[in-house]
Amino acid sequence: MDERSEQIDPAGTTASLQVFWDERLTSYDFGLEHPMNPVRVDLTMALARDLGVFDTPGVSLEEFEPADDALLRLVHDPAYIDAVRAERADPARGIGLADNPVFPGMHDASALVAGATVAAARAVWSGTTAHAANIAGGLHHAMRDAASGFCVYNDPAIAIAWLLEQGARKVAYVDVDVHHGDGVQAAFYDDPRVLTISLHETPRTLFPGTGLPQETGAGSALGTSVNVALPPGTDDRHWLRAFDAVVPPLLRAFAPEVLVTQQGCDSHELDPLAHLRLSVDGQRAAYQALHRLAHETAGGRWVLVGGGGYELVQVVPRAWTHLLAEASERPIAPETLTPQTWRDYVRERTGARAPERMSDLSGDGASVEVWTWASGYDPANPVDRAVLATRKAVFPEHGLDPMQ
Questions:
Q1: Which of its termini does the chain have fewer beta carbons within 10 Å around, N or C?
Q2: Does a structural domain hold residue 404?
Q3: Residue 5 maps to a domain
Q4: Cβ(272)–Cβ(213) under 8 Å?
Q5: Is 147 a member of any domain?
Q6: What would the mean pLDDT of 356-362 be, rounded to a whole number?
Q7: Which biological processes are named by the entry's GO terms (predicted)?
């Protein structure tokens, strides 16, 4: 049954942001030596608390239930779910490999992540809140019958499938993780109701080896899978230009009822697993743009999840605290100092020295220039060439001119 009222006015909802959180979300833990250490989520929540994000009027921390098998089966094969629950190495299903080692309580922890993202989707769809977040989510590589790339259950895909089951006619998914959002793309590759847009480092240099512009969808869904494959070294200015060239026009043309975004922050120049060169400030500019687009194209209905990000102290907590603050409608000024209480906690938890400012740039009001596509195509620029390849592959399917 459709849980959503026919018309939702986000300004009239009872909260601007609901954050679905449970300390047990940090039990999604592949071990101390694994890049995806849950301390990054713990430090994010601590920084957001110390900066008062959760004290903002209209912001609340919410409880939720783990996803049951019926929810998981919206995306995952029952035999795969059983294999995860068994907690035994199963290389054919990606379980027990170096990226996805077996850990105690793997099924329960993974179902908890999925449950939080579905709860966020439910809150937005029902009109309880305009925006909803699961910062521990964003496990976008998991496939129907296999774990992949640190991801066991594909929580954003499950949440989107749930929205479709409730009667959503159009859902847009924008993935800004440095790695291609392959699992979500695969789940809806032939479904015209879902637009997936992924901006990522080219598969020629980075896992998972997919996400070329020619991957555009199948059958009646042709043009609804969108991939912007960026060259290594892409910085803030060029990344934001690529975003401007592709995401706003497609979201405006598609007109989704809900916008779901995966906010992996491993595009940062300090991330140890990839090769883009964004700053926290460039990522903050992307959050602002997505927030505006949620209001412009999806009636304000915005579901946001975390994702990748493996510089655990310097990058992830600041990036995602900016994300939560942006979604709360009260962004944090980049020149803001990180609280001493948080810096002490970082030292206690990790032994590392915490960053002192919420910006990577110098000066007050630090901001990144947004170099728009309207300035014209430069064939000598490899980022422009990547963007134009994407526009040529999908824009005509949406009635858009790739050269305009």
A1: N
A2: no
A3: no
A4: no
A5: yes
A6: 94
A7: acetoin catabolic process; epigenetic regulation of gene expression
- 382: tokens are 């490899």
* pLDDT above 90 (res 127): yes
- Are 143 and 154 within 8 A, CB to CB? yes
Question: What span, in angstroms and rounded, lies between the C-alpha atoms of 23 and 309?
Answer: 19
Query: What is the DSSP code (8-state) at residue 352?
Result: P
The string of pLDDT tens digits covering residues 285-319 is 999 999 999 999 999 999 999 999 999 999 999 99
Any domain includes 174: yes
Q: Which of 21, 262, 290 is nearest to 140 (CA)?
A: 262
Q: Tell me: the pLDDT tens digits for 52-64? A: 999 999 999 999 9
CA distance 137 to 346: 22
Contact 125, 118 (CB under 8 A): no
Identity at 306, one-letter amino acid code: G
Mean predicted lDDT score pLDDT of the chain:
95
Report the C-alpha gap between 246 and 254 in whole angstroms.
12
Give yes or no for residue 4 having a pLDDT over 50.
no
How many domains, the chain?
1
d(CA 125, CA 5): 8
Lowest mean pLDDT among 4-18, 75-89, 169-183, 197-211: 4-18
For residue 95, the model assigns a pLDDT of 98
Task: Tell me which of 131, 141, 238, 291 is the catalytic residue.
Answer: 141
Compute how many other C-beta atoms are within 10 angstroms of the C-beta atom of residue 77: 15
295 carries an active-site annotation: no
Do residues 274 and 206 make contact, with C-beta atoms less than 8 angstroms apart?
Answer: yes
In this structure, are residues 117 and 156 in contact, taking their beta carbons and an 8 Å threshold? yes
Q: Which H or E run contains 249?
A: helix 236-254
Alpha helix ranges (H) inside 255-334: 280-297, 316-327
Q: Which of 217, 204, 221, 78 is nearest to 153 (CA)?
A: 78
The boundaries of the domain holding residue 375 are: 10-398
